[in-house]
Model the fold of this input.
Amino acid sequence: MIPVRGHKGHKVAVLGLGRSGLATARALTAGGAIALCWDDSADARARAEAEGLILHDLRRGDAWNDVVALITSPGIPHLYPAPNPVIRAAYEAGVAVDNDIGLFFRSYATEDWNMFDRLPRVVAVTGSNGKSTTSALIDHVLKHAGRKVQLAGNIGRGVLDLDPASDGEVVVLELSSYQTELARALAPDIAVFLNLSPDHLDRHGGIGGYFAAKRRLFAEGGPDRAVIGVDEAEGQYLANQMREMSGSGEPVIRISSGRKLRGDGWNVFARKGFLAEWRKGRQVATIDLRDIAGLPGSHNHQNACAAYAVCRTLGLAPRQVEAGFQTYPGLPHRSQVVLVHKGVTYVNDSKATNADSARQALKAFGKVRWIAGGLGKDGGIATLAPELTSVVKTYLFGHSAQDFALQLGDVPHEQCGDMATAVARAAADAEPGEVVLLAPAAASFDQYADFEKRGDDFIKHVRALVES
Done:
């Protein structure tokens, strides 16, 4: 646990008692603060009370007496589409609003660091797609090379659940826009921006607000090294800004998937399945990514470029990074090969919760039996038309199935209603050499609690077909 610093003896309210909220309350208490906890869910309140935490109804008019800060869970809106009533009350009472990420960056460094031979480093990864894979890949490569690492944030443990820092260790944080937009302190040593595609637009008031939330990691944090994907205009702009502000290109490593990057700065790019590192106009190293099972497709090659750049910044040699790539097993629900049966490959990419992430999954495979649907986002799947040439047939389920059907054009499709039917129909139609791919291009909340539950359901039905 990371005891929260700076609030000893103060009353601090905690809104939302899920994983991050409970960890926050514990860490505040460990740091000497008085944590006053609230959640609209009676079950969540009961769990907190069973731990001995103090419940405090933040909806009451007198709830804010002597409270110095409100720490809110990332899923609770604080501005768009409208502030949560408790957060609005905090604003009106003049109480500072923060989140666990802000507390972490104010509390991680302590006086004990003066005794370390090598200072700990914090790597923060953000972007629309690939954050989890990139973060897990950095973690895996560093551990494979014998470095001490902790992984947290939007993946693994809550940030305040981490162990206190040790000599020379690395903390890798996956940070969503929900986490970066509100944190009152952001100070990573290395910050990574992968890409940007429309997502969570209602939460951020549009694409500009969404980009601004991610940009805070760089503008507020001032990292020593910025690793920036430049395949979209926003990344090009951000890389240019960081270079301008630094007075040199060296603190910026530009990354790309699919094209060669030019210029005399530090560039890492993947092209035709090969990763290349260039510095000062000459090639330094190259890695063949084509046969690395845990990193299929060009979207994973971008993730590999980002992880490579971070690991090189942390002092690893190219051969050490390559050895880590070769042993990376991949993450569940991200281009996860479930099994191969009678020549048909079944792939779970339930994490493809928007059109752009589904595009990357479709591009990674040949002939595809595509299972898609759920709670569609703005624009649905209309932008995927160029990638549908590889789709033999689409099997639609969930809330947006009918809307998706209207956007498929001439692609054969079938309305299936639920996952069990979609898997059964795709498996019955599939021929050797084809891929049955779950890449929903939609959120899961119409039928599942989260994308993990959706992916688990796909796996269950695939395995049941094989075993029957």
